[in-house]
Every structure is written in C-alpha cells, then in structure tokens.
Write a structure and sequence with these properties.
Shape: globular
Mean pLDDT: 97
CATH topology of the largest domain: Rossmann fold
Strand content: 15-25%
CATH class of the largest domain: Alpha Beta
Number of domains: 2
Radius of gyration: 19 Å
Structural class: alpha/beta
Helix content: 25-40%
Distance between the termini: 45 Å
CATH superfamily of the largest domain: HUPs
Bound molecules: pantoate
Number of helices: 10
CATH architecture of the largest domain: 3-Layer(aba) Sandwich
Strand order of the largest sheet: 1-4-3-2-5-6
Length: 283
C-alpha cells in the first residue's frame, strides 16, 4: 500500500491507472477506521481493481462548536488496518494542501440537504459536497462506496454526481451494527458503557417501525411519535428527530402508500453524544 499526501501526486497516479484501463474505486473517510469502513473497502474491491482509501478530517463540514479538534486521528493504526484490508493507495492530505490560502470555491446542494442534518448542522452538507467533489477530482474514481449509515449524505452525493454530470457510480454499503444493534461509528468512542447500552434504543425504534408498518398501520407520523416516546423514556436519552422520508427528496412523509419504500431517519442524544441512524421501511 502506498501512502500519498499530495493531491497532485494522487491525481497523476489516478490518471496513469486510468490510462492503463484499471477500474478505480474510492472509499472516503475521516479516519478512525472501524468495521463499517472496512466493509466499504470490501465492497469497493468487489467491483474495482484498485482501491483508494482517503483519510481527511474535513474542517469545512464541522461547525464552530463541533468536535473538529477532538475528532480521533489514530493515523498509524488506520494505515495498518487499511494495509491489512488490501487497500492499494491511502490518500491522506494535510488541510493546507486541500484548502490552501485564498481558497474560495464551495459546492452546495439545495433541497435534499435542507432538512434534518442540514437543519441541525447548517453548513455541514456544503462542506461534504465540496470535499467529496475535490476528492473525486483528485482520485478520479469509476466507483465510490458510501455507507447507508449517513443516508442523507448519500442522497446529497447522489444528487451531486447526477447534477454535475460526474461519470462515477455510487455504491451504497449496508449499515454495520454492533451486537446490541447500535450502528458502528467513529464517534461511538465518545460513549460511556451506559450510554452505549442506552443508544441501542435507536435500533429498537427501527424494529418497532418495521413491525408497526407490517401490521398495516400506514400512519407514519404516529409511528414516528411512538419511537420518539420510546427514546425519551430511555434513561439518559433525548430524541432530536424521528421522521419517515421519501428516499430521493428527503421530504417527510406522513402516510404510507402500500408497496412503497420509505426511510426512517432518527437522531438522538445519549448523554451528550449525538447519534444518527436510519432504516428502510417497506409499506
Ligand atoms: O462520511 C464521512 O466520513 C465524511 O462525511 C466524508 C464523506 C469522508 C467527507 O468528509
């Protein structure tokens, strides 16, 4: 595995790989690699001959009060995990080479980025869309794998690729869960044992929704409220939002139509740690 830190060098390598007719797959991360990231690498390896993993804690997607400075950066361990997983190139640039002095350009995505995480974290998706565009231009992938865990991010990236005519296939990787159902996330390390146990309520909420919809209850608004109550009744937990949305527009849906698929979005605090999760629900 080759470690690259310079955007220009990464671009030259990607260009050569393309000229040699290699299929490039990219997996973008902010590091602190876990089982979820490694499952993305595995999925990329199924389609692409060459896998580039990027590690970059992107400052522009964090708000002032968020955890940019304390975000875990275990680079040595990440590099060892990436190598063991069979990654071909690890691209880990410094912030200065991605956002040099006098950097001025951003990419924004409107409707799909407006609600939920977009409302809670106003400039977040602008930061994500900008860095993803830059990393696409640097790594020149044919395919890119993103986790379903960040479902709204995935919807924003799909929109971005379609709207800006980027010839990149976006592959969605299923959520990897811990034994108690908690979705794996780099931020889970902030949870105490009690908070981690309590956070399993998110997955219980998703299971509850599946059961209630299977009972032919089409009142999604009621079901979302039941889940909010379940979360708020769990010691140390506070619901932020629970809502069913249609997959592409990320607009709330109140009543289910038989045969259609929706996505249930959940965000809550376990202690002071904010967690998000989601599940696909077919009516
Ligand atoms: O999902 C993440 O880890 C980040 O938002 C991403 C896509 C790597 C962009 O910084």
């Amino acid at each position: 595995m080759q470690i690259i830190t310079e955007p220009g060098q990464m671009q030259t390598i990607a260009e050569k790989l393309r000229l040699n007719r290699q299929c490039i797959g990219v997996v973008m991360t902010m590091g602190a690699l876990h089982e979820g990231h490694l499952s993305l690498v595995k999925l990329a390896q199924k389609t692409a001959g060459i896998v580039i993993l990027t590690i970059f804690v992107n400052p522009s997607q964090f708000a002032e009060h968020e955890d940019l400075h304390k975000y875990p950066r275990p680079f040595e361990n990440d590099a060892a995990l990436a190598k063991a997983a069979g990654v071909d190139f690890l691209f880990a640039p410094e912030a200065e080479s991605i956002y040099p002095e006098n950097y001025q350009t951003t990419v924004t995505c409107s409707a799909v980025a407006k609600r939920f995480e977009g409302e809670m974290r106003p400039d977040h998706f602008k930061g994500v869309a900008t860095i993803v565009t830059k990393l696409f231009n640097i790594t020149k992938p044919h395919i890119a794998v993103f986790g379903e865990k960040d479902a709204q991010q995935l919807a924003v990236i799909r929109r971005l690729v379609e709207d800006l005519n980027m010839p990149i296939k976006i592959v969605e990787a299923p959520i990897v869960r811990e034994k108690n159902g908690l979705a794996v996330s780099s931020r889970n390390i902030y949870l105490s044992i009690q908070e981690r146990d309590a956070a399993a309520i998110l997955y219980k909420g998703i299971c509850h929704a599946k059961m209630r919809v299977a009972e032919e209850d089409n009142n999604l608004q009621n079901i979302a409220q039941e889940i909010e109550e379940m979360i708020n009744a769990t010691p140390g937990c506070r619901s932020d939002y629970v809502s069913f949305v249609d997959e592409t527009r990320f607009e709330p849906v109140e009543t289910a139509e038989k045969g259609r698929e929706y996505r249930l979005l959940l965000a809550m605090y376990s202690g002071t740690v904010r967690l998000i999760d989601n599940g696909k629900i077919r009516a």
